[in-house]
Structures are given as structure tokens and as C-alpha cells.
Specification:
A 10-stranded mixed beta sheet has the order 4-1-3-2-7-6-8-10-9-5, sandwiched between helices. Strands 11-12 form a two-stranded antiparallel ribbon. The chain has a domain at 141-382: Collagenase (Catalytic Domain). The chain is of the alpha/beta class. It has helices spanning 5-12, 52-64, 84-91, 112-122, 205-225, 256-265, 279-291, 344-355; strands at 42-47, 68-73, 77-81, 96-101, 141-144, 187-198, 231-243, 296-301, 315-318, 323-325, 333-334, 342-343, 375-376, 381-382. The protein is globular and about 55 Å long.
Length: 403
Amino acid sequence: MRRSILSLLACLSLLSPVSAAGAGLPAPEIPPGEHRPGDTGDALVRLRVDGIDDLWDFVDDWERAGARFPHVYPPDVLIGDVPERIERALSEDPRVERLFRKEAALAAKSAGARDLLVDSWSAELGAPPPEPAKQDAPFGDLLLGPAFDPSAPLPESGVNKTTGGLVRKYGSAFGASMIQTSELLMGKVVVGVFLPDAAGGAYSDPEISTVYQSVRGAMDFWAGKARYPGVRFVYDLRTKIPCSRNFHTTPPHLNNKAWVAEILESIGYDLFLKGTEYGPVYEYLDSLRVRTRSEWGVVFFIPKATYFPGAPYTAYAYLGGPFLVVPSGSNGRVTPHGSGSMGLSDLVIHESGHLFWALDEYEPGAGTSQPCHVRSGYLDIQNRNSLYHDYSCDRHVPCAMDN
């Protein structure tokens, strides 16, 4: 299965939402996820649920009633929009421990990773999701892949490490195999976020909080573009994981299978998979897809660095997944090639587009730009919005993939 983001979003615009109020819930007055001006507020909901299925039942119930939860942090935190007209009813749901608005965010803190998660959320200014903007420094990315040899046989479904071999039901949605991790930008997408403590670059808690905020801002952008039938990002946050690679002296793409394997093996994933160097990554994602009942999965490796010295790129990703590599930057800003500045959210937006088969659209000579006739994705769609002009281009419109 292969599908480009542009073709997917075109299809999404043709689909109609199915809406029905759950038992005892307020009937939606407007389509789920669409709110009147002044009727929406960024909300964090802490739940008291019994496992992942109970969590998804809650999300389904209240999204039918008009809420929208594109950011899911198992086992018990949701971030999204809860219209004021249903706030009281949602707060009185016995599955809700508490609903927080930003002004009461400090009261939502508990400990550890959740504390950093709340910090990252409360630090946001409530602005709309970021639109990618032209940066004030040269930018080049490296588009690699695909990461799996198409001539190799497709692997069988993986093993859920937590339950000892749960039948793989959710990751195989749409007939996708274990290595088809990000074919469609729809449904539930697990996002493994790794912030390794590497040689020469260990994260502080405020830095972790800033990266969480930037990643969520990037995924909010895609959630807004894929509103119907919708996408939910399910996060697995990994910090304080040791990594021997020094990203300040050795660019990450050089023998990256070594440091990627080191990180994944440290949390128990070491699968050898014929046809790829990244068996542990696919094994990890397969396990997450099963445990979180999600269709798709991607991994973000974000080493602590303002940029990667000696690298001919700012960041890189594998076309079609399974992972991207971006520097953390400082205070949410990345310094391409050691000068200028660009937003970390903008960088993650662009690179994550590659994970869902979108090609570069910028002008010739910039990174791995592709001309208009090149095809990608499940529907084998031409890259006709590219600024790398040839005989098959359409009139260009601004896009996350052109800068």
C-alpha cells in the first residue's frame, strides 16, 4: 500500500462524517470537531479508565458529542478541544478525573513525565496550529528510503511484548503488513518520540517540555489538514535513554542503524527482519500498534543539538517510514547549518510528511527535491505541485513540502 498525503487529503475532503450521539451524551449541534467561534478551548482531560479500550470508548463517545481529541497520551491523558457547551457534561462523566483549561494547568501536575507533559501544554499560547513558514536560513533535508527492500517477502505480524503474543488485529488494518507503518494519514497513528541522552547532549526537563510542545504543534497541523474522517496521534514518550553516539561530532545518518539499534535494544526490541536494517524499529511500532489499537505508527528520533555539525542536511526521514531524525534546537528553534533559525515544529511537519509518502516540492538544488513527474504513494500520484518544474507541473500552491 502506498499513498501520498496530497492525494489522501483530496480524498478526505470528499468524505462525509458519520454522527450519532452516544447514550446519555449531548447530541452534536454541528459536525464533530467543528466549533463555533468562541465555543472552543484547548483542554487537557485526565481520565480514570480501565485500559486502552475504555480510553477509546470515551474518546469515541465525546467526539460524537462535539469534542475533538487529536492528541492521546496513554494511559490517561487527552489533549484537544472541548466546546464550552459540553464542558460540564463531560466533566461529570464518571470516567473523567478532571478537565483542565490552561489557566488551571498547574493544578493538573502530578509527577515525572506527566509533569513535563502538562508543562509543555500549559506553555502554549493557544494560537492556531503553525503554518510552515519560509525560514531565514538555508535548509536542506535528506530523503532516504524506502527503509524496506520491496523485493523482500512481507513479514508476518509481530509479537506484542507486553501480552506475550496478542493476535495482531489493529496494526493490520487496511491489509497493511508489519513494515507498512504509515500508508494513510487517517485513523490512529502511534508516534514514538525518543529524546536520547547522547554523548555530549543530555536533556534537561525544560528542554524536554519544549520538544513535547513542538512535536504536538506539528501533529496539530496535520490533524487540522486531515479533519475528516480524522486522525488521532497516540504518543509514546521516551526520555533518559542512553545513546553512545555523539551527534555533535558524527552526523546521525552515518551508520545510523548502529545507534538506532542501540536505543531500541535498550527498551527490549532487537528483531532481525530480512529486507531491512531496522527490524527493531518495526518490532517496536508493531507492538505499539497492537497495544494501543492503532492502525499506523512512526518514530521521531530527536537528539539534543541545535544542528548536526558536518551534515549536509538539517534533518532527514525515510520515505514511507518508519522514522525521522531532527535536532532538538534550542527553545523551539533549529539552527540549520549553524546559522539562521527555523521552528522545530515546522521541521517536524515537513519531515513527517515524508513518512506518509509525500515528496519534496522545493526548487532544484535544495536537498532532495523531486520534479513534478515523479510518482509516490498508494495511488502512484505525480508530484505536480513541485517547484522543480518540468512538463507535468500544476500551478503551484503553498505546501508544507515546498520549504
